[in-house]
UniProtKB/TrEMBL annotation:
Similarity field: Belongs to the TsuA/YedE (TC 9.B.102) family.
Name under which the protein is recorded: YeeE/YedE family protein
Domain of life: Bacteria
Keywords: Cell inner membrane, Cell membrane, Membrane, Transmembrane, Transmembrane helix, Transport
Thylakoid found in the keyword field: no
Chief localization: membrane
Pfam families with a match to the protein in the record: Sulf_transp
GO cellular component assignments: plasma membrane
Membrane-protein topology: Multi-pass membrane protein
Amino acid sequence: MKILRELLKITLFEPWPLWVGMLALTITNLYMFMFARALGVFPQMAMWGSWIYNLLGWQIESPFPPYPVKLPYLDQHSLLDLGIILGALSVALINREFKLRKENFLGYLMGAIGGFLMGLGTVLMPPCNVGGFWVATMAFSLSGPLAGIGLFIGAYIGGKILKTQVSKAVEIIDFNKAQKAEPVLSKKHSISTFLGFIFIISLLLISLIYYYYGMPVHAGLFLFGAFFGIIFQRSRICFVAAFREITISKDGKIMKWVLISIGISAIGFAILKSKGYQPYHMVFPAGWHNVLGGLIFGIGMVLAGGCGVGILVRSGEGYTRSWIAILTGMLTSGAWTGIYKHKVGEGWLYGSPVFLPEKLGWAGAFLVIFGFLFIFYLIITWLEGKKYEGN
């Protein structure tokens, strides 16, 4: 029992080091791929938007072909997203870190604009930074590195915009009118902690209900989502910071771990795909739209204060700006087929999917992916070095 209590304390109560979070994220993603699919969150949010439009009388299809319009609680992919929100909410409550965090008008406006840009970027890229860059690269899709280039540029632009906004805000602050800080309450014997454990138990019960009614994949993805929510909440992994801080503060620590996780995962994906297991999973159309979509999405995720996964996690923590970003993001992407008249991957806008091992063989595919990771790592190291020039 003592070992179990210590494990529970470390898992749910202690902050996780970045490397532990990235390792847990990498392993969980590989296991979920073996179970059903890899991580990606925005296509199902786009489906939610299309579902809302259908409820309002605009009969349109979901932009992503594998995600037809249906009730979210009956969609296995939507349960992944809902699991992320509820998993993050649970551990935030356990640690008394949940709070409704309100914004001023500018904050909500930035969230709305950020969500709009992410919604547009996800159908152009496609999909989001996690699925379209992180997973696509380890899945040996040419679209992954191309999306990464766009995200890098977009996060830089978004960071500059945000930096300007912060500078203006600081100039008008009257520190003499600052509110008195309240003492931090003890985390022991808190009703919030009790509610958090109730949520954890509820997550398990909900998954059992899905399993009982013959939906094991729904049950599994819901639990995987909860695991991801816990991982992101406890380790504070932030893909937005990973891209933004490379150029804004010249700190590449997070992105270096992201690249390492891609390299480790690529080996696992290669073993599975080379044996014929879902070889085209997370292989997306490749072309100029990857860079453009990544750029737009990159700006949006910085303004919104979170990427696709980030706004789900932060929503569970009570960040109301993220609620607005989810709403505008899903409504923007959900309207795509009504505007473009085609689904994602169809029509003049998109290139063809490029599965690198199919074009170059596995040796060539490894050379391209690990070459990209190595060059990206060198760029980060070079930018970090410029931070100390002149000192």
